[in-house]
Design goal:
Blueprint lengths: L1 H31 L3 H24 L7 H19 L3 H23 L4 H21 L18 E3 L2 E4 L8 H24 L2 H11 L1 H6 L4 H27 L9 H14 L6 H15 L7 H15 L17
Antiparallel strand pairs: 1-2
Helix pairs in contact: 1-6, 2-6, 2-9, 2-10, 2-11, 3-4, 3-5, 3-9, 4-9, 7-9, 10-11
């Protein structure tokens, strides 16, 4: 009975939160005339999706510092399919994620057998490798990147328009914001469902004791690859959305620093909580902007505050309000 009430409360709270993002926030932005906040909040939503992928690898006890590589690949896959092949952006979105997932399986099969510290060291170079490939391959246009990417076209099924043509809208930024929020909601809903499924429970056993999990018949290599593929899929989808919003993609669109930030988002929000990446992204993004006025001391103050928060709150900011039910080492 208590479990049923808790589930109902979570459902109602999630619905109210989504309603606030889709209705209240746009009304406030329109009232204040700060339409630039649409792009800012859209960026936060997409960064939280990419960071959620990193959180999944933490969930199996692995540190992923290469998520920027998959965001970059996803952006290029979508841009190439839209500009060179005339494909609808909405179709390229899952294709970009699937491409990144397939690439991660090929990469992950050998390196996921390594111990955690070695896996982290290998992923650290992935973003730079992806950047160098983008510079070298003719299909990516090298340092010039891919520009003038058209806005997403409409999406119709059986004559029913599900998504309007963004180019015909008076405010495409609002449309991008709504699309990013809905995508973020689907992402974290799926993440919550995954962690509460049988596969999620098996993944949790890996972070606790891999040898024990293996001794009871858990296919460790299989679970690692599945988790890494899901992680990369989210990175590719987020990167594709970024390319559509900026209508361009360059080799420098996602760097090693971005990969580190994706990891920090998870730490800051809380590794033991599904919503940790979302909160961490929000705080990290706006915290950095708030310190802009400090000039040359911005990085020093930001780093000091971040380290202090991690020392005082090792379980993340969400540990202040929520009991820690799931641990990620």
């Amino acid at each position: 009975m208590k479990t049923s009430r808790t589930a109902t409360f979570k459902l109602i709270a999630s619905a109210l939160f989504l309603l606030a993002l889709l209705v209240v926030v746009p009304l406030l932005i329109e009232a204040t005339g700060r339409s630039d906040l649409y792009y800012t909040l859209t960026s936060v939503a997409l960064l939280s999706i990419i960071s959620a992928g990193v959180w999944i690898t933490f969930y199996i006890g692995r540190i992923n510092i290469g998520q920027g590589a998959y965001a970059l690949m996803g952006g290029y896959v979508s841009a190439i399919l839209v500009t060179s092949h005339g494909m609808s952006f909405w179709l390229t979105l899952p294709l970009a994620g699937l491409f990144c997932a397939a690439a991660s399986v090929l990469i992950g099969l050998p390196i996921l057998r390594l111990r955690g510290v070695y896996f982290a060291m290998v992923t650290l170079v992935l973003t730079e490798v992806a950047r160098l490939l983008a510079l070298a391959l003719p299909i990516t246009n090298g340092a010039s990147g891919i520009v003038s990417i058209p806005l997403p076209s409409g999406l119709s099924i059986f004559g029913v328009t599900l998504v309007p043509d963004f180019a015909t809208l008076a405010n495409p930024r609002l449309a991008f914001y709504i699309a990013a929020v809905l995508l973020m909601a689907l992402c974290f809903l799926g993440l919550y469902r995954l962690t509460h499924s049988r596969i999620g429970q098996l993944c949790q056993s890996l972070q606790q004791n891999e040898e024990l999990a293996s001794s009871i018949g858990v296919n460790i290599a299989y679970l690692r690859v599945i988790a890494y593929a899901i992680s990369s899929f989210l990175g590719g989808v987020g990167g594709a959305m970024f390319a559509a919003i900026s209508q361009s993609i360059y080799p420098s669109s996602f760097t090693v620093a971005d990969s580190v930030n994706f990891m920090l988002n998870c730490f800051l929000g809380g590794l033991g909580y599904v919503l940790g990446p979302m909160l961490g992204t929000f705080v990290l993004y706006f915290g950095w902007d708030m310190l802009f006025q400090t000039g040359e001391f911005q990085l020093l103050i930001f780093s000091t505050v971040l380290i202090a928060l991690m020392l005082v709150l090792p379980n993340g900011l969400l540990s202040l309000a929520l009991p820690r039910k799931r641990s990620v080492q």
